[in-house]
Design goal:
The complex is a heterodimer of chains A (113) and B (116).
Chain A (H helix, E strand, L loop, with lengths): L2 E3 L4 E5 L4 E3 L2 E3 L6 E7 L6 E7 L6 E3 L2 E6 L4 E6 L8 E8 L5 E3 L3 E6 L1
Parallel strand pairs in A: 2-12
Antiparallel strand pairs in A: 1-4, 3-9, 5-6, 5-10, 7-8, 8-9, 10-11, 10-12
Chain B lengths: L4 E3 L2 E4 L5 E6 L6 E7 L5 E8 L2 E4 L8 E4 L6 E5 L8 E8 L10 E2 L3 E5 L1
Parallel strand pairs in B: 2-11
Antiparallel strand pairs in B: 1-3, 3-8, 4-5, 4-9, 5-6, 7-8, 9-10, 9-11
Classes of the chains: A mainly beta (113), B mainly beta (116).
Chain lengths: 113, 116
């Protein structure tokens, strides 16, 4: 069975702080894909990143970075120098061989000015 | 290209009534998915269409939910009769056909359903 756990329900930080959102997954598939989505107050789900199980290189995109650790089944997401516009619910997701995506419960991030 | 379109964006209905949600995927996307998020919980898979065929409907909660995708284009999700626990945000997503799960999905903005 596939499962994604986002243990942090809510996080609140002050602008310019760094913040890390945790994601731990379970799967028996040898090939799988991990995703992060952002849901801003407007409601849509915005794709942020996809990482396949064979590529453990960390990735940085501007203030965003992702740390994929296969040994601990984690795919954590760090926002550096957070901004108020980063306030949203962030979802981690896993897609395995059966072509359907499983989501975590989401982490609500609030960045205060 | 146009994104995934869902309507209505909001719907408030009384318990026992019927509601139909619609999703227009990105043109040419064979895969269409329905997901639901109830308050504060994870986004849960409902079902997956490949073109007009139901590939996986293991997430459909019960027989009050009926999904269709006639002609392999848009899809509808009907809830009849609606119950209070059906309240939540219903997301639709689409993706191109791939055998390897390479693509992330493109999601619509969701339909917020409130059953009172």
């Amino acid at each position: 069975a596939q499962k994604v756990t986002q243990a942090q329900t809510e996080i609140s930080v002050v602008e310019k702080e760094d913040v890390t959102l945790d994601c731990v997954y379970e799967t028996r598939d040898t090939t799988y894909y991990l995703f992060w989505y952002k849901q801003p107050p407007s409601g849509e789900l915005v794709f942020l990143i996809r990482r396949n199980s064979f590529d453990e290189q960390n990735e940085i995109s501007g203030r965003y970075s992702w740390n994929f650790q296969k040994s601990t089944s984690s795919f954590n997401f760090t926002i550096t120098a957070s901004q108020v516009v980063d306030s949203a619910v962030y979802f981690c997701a896993l897609r395995g061989n059966n072509n359907d995506m499983r989501f975590g419960a989401g982490t609500r991030l609030t960045v205060k000015p | 290209e146009a994104g995934v379109t869902q309507f209505p964006s909001h719907s408030v209905i009384e318990k026992g009534q019927t509601v139909t949600l619609r999703c227009d995927p990105i043109s040419g996307h064979d895969n269409l998915y329905w997901y639901r998020r109830v308050m504060g919980k994870e986004i849960k898979f409902l079902l997956h269409f490949v073109k007009e065929s139901k590939q996986d409907e293991s997430g459909m909660p019960n027989n009050r939910f009926l999904a269709e995708r006639t002609g392999g284009t848009y899809s509808t999700l009907k809830v009849q009769p609606a119950e209070l626990e059906d309240s939540g945000v219903y997301f639709c997503a689409s993706s191109p056909w791939t055998g390897g799960g390479v693509y992330g999905y493109t999601f619509g903005s969701g339909t917020r359903l409130t059953v009172v």
